[in-house]
TrEMBL record, chain A:
Protein name stated in the entry: Uncharacterized protein
Recorded superkingdom: Bacteria
Automatic annotation (TrEMBL), chain B:
InterPro entries, per the entry: Gliding_Motility_GTPase, P-loop_NTPase
Protein name listed in UniProt: GTP-binding protein
Gene3D superfamilies xrefs: P-loop containing nucleotide triphosphate hydrolases
Amino acid sequence: MTILRFGIPHLSDPEVRLVKAFFRLYSQDPTFRWTIVEGPPYDVLLVDESVSEDVVAGTVLTLTPVKSELPNTLERPLRSDHLEAWLKKAEYDLRNARLQPQPPEEQPIDEQRIDPTSSSHFKLRRWPPPALLGSNPVRVRMATLISRRALRLDEMAAITEQPLAECAAVVNLLRGAGLIEIQDLPDKPMTMGRAGGRFADQSVKQSFVSGVRNKLGL
Amino acid sequence: MNEYKILFTGTMGAGKTTAIGSVSEAAPIVTDVANTDLSLGKERTTVGLDFGLLTLASGDRIRLFGTPGQQRFDFLWKILAKSAIGLIILVDNSRSDPLADLVVYLDGFAEDLSVLPCAIGIGRLDTHPVPTLEDYIDILANRNQLVPIMSVDVRRREDVVLLIDTLLAQLEANTFGA
Ligand SMILES: Nc1nc2c(ncn2[C@@H]2O[C@H](COP(=O)(O)OP(=O)(O)O)[C@@H](O)[C@H]2O)c(=O)[nH]1
Ligand SMILES: [Mg+2]
């Protein structure tokens, strides 16, 4: 079982003695895993709020003169039960963090792929070179849609009747070529825009579009 | 029953009559006459509007209009464009300055293009590879215009169908989204 390293090098002697006394008490519990260590690295460093930020530790726990709503603070005078509760919670958080697969290194935003569940709106910046779309009519249709208007993947999927994954693939392809602008517009349900000028209303327009496609064999 | 218009425009010989003929259910009504300008190397030229027809199952009709073969932009076309559901610009890449040809139409229809669905087809890129499609895309980008543009041979029905489908997708984009 890994030990968890607790540091108190910045505290005054009376507080060091107090914390050490608490720890002797806590260590009666066989599941208690914290140990006071003399030097870094520290999983947690307990400091006075006057201590500057440039201390290095997994988490900095700050002692404050009055009760604070900020996370990772404990009020003075330090109480055994408060510190114990805080350490249990910190242990739990640390264990969870260690069980999680390490998140991949932070990549520059342009390298990140758009996930099919993304709720961003995508807008084409420039018409893509022919090699990107090929003569694939579905891709041409998707590029055309977002050349006109910023759309979410689910909107693209609904209009083109293609799977979300295919829409995401096309957006990623275009994005890889630097042709996509991401717009994080307020997330609202798919809405009907204004009717196009030549059509009485949206449903007339929709049935017209599908009528033409039928006629052309699309 | 409603009637809609799609307008085909472009320089003489760009393929307007051919494109309309590729998709029209009836042979296009062609108003060509013998061309007396021998420098144009084309025996016939369109003097009036060509038109073809698509009748939908609903009974709705689409008239496919081809603008007459003139060298200059005609403001009558803008009036036609006002009532059209889409505009297809055809460019003949074998001409001496086809980029400038496109610009004539982009300028002429500039006000309409912000709302009017539009698609651009470049013909004869196989035999005349320069300027490239990328050169055309640059021109559009420099003008801050984003219009679908593709290589076409309008003698092939599927190429004309793709141009029309691109107009339809623009109508759909105006229906949905933020
Ligand atoms: N190679 C090639 N020839 C074409 C293409 N489009 C039209 N043509 C030919 O060019 C000629 C003029 O076409 P036309 O449709 O009358 O042009 P319009 O003046 O724009 O109506 C015809 O002989 C067509 O067969 C094309 O994309 N590629
Ligand atoms: Mg003609």
